[in-house]
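Ticket #4471: structure export looks truncated?
Reporter: QA, pipeline team
Priority: medium

Steps to reproduce: submit the single chain below to the structure queue and open the exported record.
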Amino acid sequence: MNPQPAHDLRPRLILAALALAAVIVPYLTWHQTWFGRRLSQAELAQYLADEQHPRKTQHALTFLADQMAKADPAARAWYPQIVQAAHRPSVEIRTLAAWTMGQDNQSDILHRALLDLLDDPDALVRRNAALSLVRFGDARGRRELVAMLRPVTQRVQADRDEVWEALRALYLVGEAEDLPAVDVYATGAAGASDRIHQQAVETARAIRKRMAPSPTR
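Actual output as written to the record:
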């Protein structure tokens, strides 16, 4: 049998290469963008130090947040890098770092870093820091929590979620002076959804209960 001419093989090789690329390219895209993929210690170090590719840092922070939520002691070694990420120029990174810090409410280093983030120039960072501080039982972010209840003409889904989270936080740390902002949603005056309305009612009730004088014996 005569060997097949090279020019007859070329189209098949091109097709095979294209087929392989059709498999490899989506895999590489998934591999680089899916935050659910586990990271090795070497990858964590690389991703947290990478200031050129924010998604890698986001992947590392999301992975660590999951480990922290599971009380994995190995995550504690990376707390200094999480704090450093909270000072990156990227608002998205700082916002995610503030949320990640709230996953371990026993850490002093993360607690102190969250207090610093209350002075961040971006509102999203400050608000995530305020929400995370509530997990520490720290009410010093109350001003930001109340600001999250601001009325707006048209509220998108992200804003509605933000209001709900603020109301949940104020349920724990809200004070009497916060009631006017909460009651806007509790009375339905802001056109709130049922979920937000119910949470506002519960939050207002909890605040008023804390205001009530303790019974004397």
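Status: closed, not a bug. The export was complete when the record was re-opened. Leaving a note from the reviewer for reference: Residues 42 and 72 are 17 Å apart (CA to CA).
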